[in-house]
Amino acid sequence: MKAIVISEPGKPEVLQLCDVADPEIKDDEVLIKVLATALNRADTLQRLGLYNPPPGSSPYLGLECSGTIESVGKNVSRWKVGDQVCALLSGGGYAEKVSVPAGQIFPIPAGISLKDATAFPEVACTVWSTVFMMGRLSAGESFLVHGGSSGIGTFAIQIAKHLGVRVFVTAGNEEKLAACNELGADVCINYKTEDFVAKVKAETDGKGVDVILDCIGAPYLQKNLDSLNFDGRLCIIGLMGGANAEIKLSSLLPKRLTVLGAALRPRSPENKEVVVAEVEKNVWPAIEARKVKPVIHKYLPLSQAAEAHSLMESSNHIGKILLVT
């Protein structure tokens, strides 16, 4: 098969389409003939040599895919050859074929094309497992998502609004803020021209929001804590701005704040299977009811993975960037 290979750690140009061996499947896995995959920030970090795949995972990039099942392991009962599916991966999506544990596979939501379905597994599993399973966000609460126009952000806005949550977002320009507003965000904050802490406080009568989903890390840590309501929960899923920070612990105690850190890729297959089951139960009906839609910025052929990485690193996109085989 053909797959995108990292010739050496470096700039997007190190991504090359090469002939490689087909993956082999274990008894509890299926082999998917990939139609499409989607970019995630972890892909750019792996390309730079900063984020190695978990042990035993595919060496190739790609944390989600959609396609058609080509073969199944002897212990697999739910899925059969010819099924059209999408899947959460620990790697290997930037290829023509990928092996996947059966518990990490989703049916294609009714009304969504096979190609577009690849926009959902990583964002849905990330947001649901952190914001809802760990952060316990619920109807009537308020929620701030940083990077509202990202793949994570555009999904988080929609599922939170569907579940009766008041949504705040930050983004860096008016086009991105308008896109967030169109998806349902109630309060849209330009982090380049506005103080998001002051804006959150002004919009919540000085209380703050109940849950924050943060991908920035160190520079936002104290600001996030200052933006939380009593019993607030800060969910950190990325460190784009840095990993080391100093905070005032005195800001945690009186408001009973919780700081949660989470990464999806390193979770065990058993843990991922639990998350996938919860997402299929709670998110898939919202997608099929058109309450949550895929937000796709651009489709590119797999051979143009370098161009796709350059686009992601420019941050000029809104929603997901897809690679099609």
Strand content: 25-35%
Give me the secondary-structure category.
alpha/beta
* Apparent shape: globular
Q: What's the overall average pLDDT, rounded? A: 98
Q: Which consecutive residue ranges, at least 5 long each, have pLDDT under 50?
A: none
Q: List how many beta strands DSSP finds.
A: 15
Helix content: 25-40%
| Gyration radius over CA | 19 Å
Straight-line distance between termini: 11 Å
Largest sheet: 7 strands, mixed
Give the count of helical stretches: 9
List the helices and strands in order: EEEHEEEEHEHEHEHEHEEHHEHE
What does this entry show, briefly?
The protein has 325 residues and is an alpha/beta fold. The protein has nine helices and 15 strands.
Key words describing this protein structure:
single chain; 325 residues; alpha/beta; 7-stranded mixed sheet; 6-stranded parallel sheet; 9 helices
Question: Can you lay out the helices and strands and say which pair or pack?
Answer:
Elements: E1 2-6, E2 15-19, E3 29-38, H1 41-47, E4 64-72, E5 84-88, E6 97-101, E7 105-107, H2 121-134, E8 142-146, H3 151-162, E9 166-171, H4 174-183, E10 187-190, H5 196-203, E11 209-214, H6 221-226, E12 228-236, E13 258-261, H7 269-282, H8 284-288, E14 296-301, H9 305-314, E15 320-324
Parallel strand pairs: 8-9, 8-11, 9-10, 11-12, 12-13, 14-15
Antiparallel strand pairs: 1-2, 3-4, 3-6, 3-15, 4-5, 5-7
Would you kindly provide a written description of the structure presented here, covering whatever features stand out?
The chain is α/β, with parallel strands linked by helices. It contains nine helices and 15 strands. Strands 3, 4, 5, 6, 7, 14 and 15 form a seven-stranded mixed sheet that branches. Helix 2 crosses helix 3 and helix 2 packs across helix 7 (269-282). The mean pLDDT is 98.
